[in-house]
Write a structure and sequence with these properties.
With 99 residues, the protein is mainly alpha-helical. The protein is built from 4 helices and no strands.
């Protein structure tokens, strides 16, 4: 998909190619990071520490220096954090949106 787009832009000239690349690259990068976040959230929800670790250490996630010996700890902390965040959201929604 992106290869044909790059070829088309490159055919228009190197200056045009780089102008478009300056616009397209951040969009593609953002898409990859958002995709990585979705994979991390899915892994947390499944409750599989190994799957969560794989999602965290994927290239797209851009997370470095994780210690494989802490796989279970990452799962527990991320799950607790996600639950706390959803409880805060529920409280805010109940207090400010519904009232």
């Amino acid at each position: 998909m992106f290869q044909s787009l790059f070829c088309k832009l490159f055919a228009e000239g190197i200056d045009t190619f780089f102008q478009h690349l300056m616009i397209i690259f951040p969009i593609i990068s953002s898409f990859l990071v958002l995709s990585a976040v979705a994979k991390i959230n899915q892994a947390i929800d499944v409750g599989d520490p190994e799957r969560t670790y794989e999602a965290l250490t994927s290239t797209e996630a851009c997370i470095t220096n994780l210690d494989e010996t802490n796989i279970d700890r990452y799962q527990i902390l991320l799950r607790e954090s996600k639950l706390a965040k959803s409880e805060v959201f529920f409280y805010i929604h109940r207090e400010f949106v519904l009232n």
